[in-house]
Amino acid sequence: xxxxxxxxxxxxxxxxxxxxxxxxxxxxxxxxxxxxxxxxxxxxxxxxxxxxxxxxxxxxxxxxxxxxxxxxxxxxxxxxxxxxxxxxxxxxxxxxxxxxxxxxxxxxxxxxxxxxxxxxxxxxxxxxxxxxxxxxxxxxxxxxxxxxxxxxxxxxxxxxxxxxxxxxxxxxxxxxxxxxxxxxxxxx
Length: 188
Fold this sequence. Notes:
There is one protein chain. The chain is α/β, with parallel strands linked by helices. The chain has one domain (2-179): 3-Layer(aba) Sandwich (Pyruvate-ferredoxin Oxidoreductase, domain 3). Helices cover 35% and strands 25% of the residues. Strands 2-3-1-4-5-6-7 form a seven-stranded mixed sheet, with helices on both faces.
């Protein structure tokens, strides 16, 4: 089993930490792991993405052009990575701020309104954990207990009191992801 993932959005959305948590979770399951971040010099507000590969075999290269799954959190990332999902793959996206929704019919597409859910839960910083929960509902490639351990490793100890809230956000994500159906255009 090999899962090749791109997570892409604005800096400050927790893109890199979501990837890091997935990577830690894979390590705890004795998988081969690659975590390769990419971000502009502006960090917050600029685009950021991370490639994560989890595999039970050796990973030959962390550099990918196509992915099994794309998690898209802004329009620029949608424009850049929608076509990079392998046929039969998965695209999960947060529709807030997306003006041009996905149009591919050869992949499975899902929406998660993580921004709304995080706001309703009273803490916008858990946005990425809602998204992570949505992903794990569709592709349960790592165990929840390993995700929580990954959270402990990636969060500074002074924020460990927020782990139960993050756990709740993951659960909300698993309950809130919905399938997105591409509407076929009728040519006249």
